[in-house]
Specification:
The chain is mainly alpha-helical. Helices cover 83% and strands 0% of the residues. It has 2 helices and no strands. Helix 1 runs antiparallel to helix 2. It starts with a helix and ends with a helix. 10% of the residues are buried.
Length: 78
C-alpha cells in the first residue's frame, strides 16, 4: 500500500523541524557560552540576548512546522 501524501509531507516537514532543532541547539549553546565566558561584560550579555532571540524565532518555526505536520496527519483517512 502506498503511503498517503499527508504522511510523506509530514515526514518531510518533520525532517525540516529536526534541522531547525539543531539550529536551536546551537543558538542555546551560544547563549550559554556567552554567559559562562570568564570575562562577562556587556558584549557577552548582548551576544547571549541575540542568541536567545534567534532561538525563540526558531522555536516558533518548529512549532509551526510541527502543527502543519500534525494537521496533515489528522486528515489521513484510516
Amino acid at each position: 500500500m502506498k503511503k498517503p501524501i499527508q504522511v510523506r509531507t509530514a515526514a518531510a516537514l518533520l525532517t525540516t523541524a529536526s534541522a531547525e532543532a539543531h539550529k536551536l541547539s546551537l543558538c542555546l549553546a551560544g547563549a550559554v557560552n556567552s554567559l559562562r565566558a570568564p570575562a562577562y561584560d556587556s558584549d557577552a550579555a548582548i551576544e547571549a540576548f541575540t542568541d536567545l532571540q534567534a532561538a525563540a524565532e526558531i522555536l516558533e518555526t518548529i512549532e509551526r512546522i510541527m502543527g502543519e505536520a500534525a494537521d496533515g496527519l489528522a486528515r489521513v483517512e484510516a
